[in-house]
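Quiz preparation item.
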């Protein structure tokens, strides 16, 4: 999936480190019906 490639990009590592440094939060919206919940590959990008 394209989103998986996006999450593996160096840019996402930079964004994740900035989120930690500045304690930033974001909203996650999924546009597909996902009866099994959020995939494990995406969970690491979501903070509650």
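Solution:
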């Amino acid at each position: 999936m394209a989103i998986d490639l996006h999450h593996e990009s160096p840019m996402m590592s930079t964004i994740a480190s900035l989120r930690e440094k500045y304690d930033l939060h974001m909203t996650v919206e999924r546009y597909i019906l996902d009866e099994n919940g959020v995939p494990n590959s995406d969970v690491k990008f979501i903070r509650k």
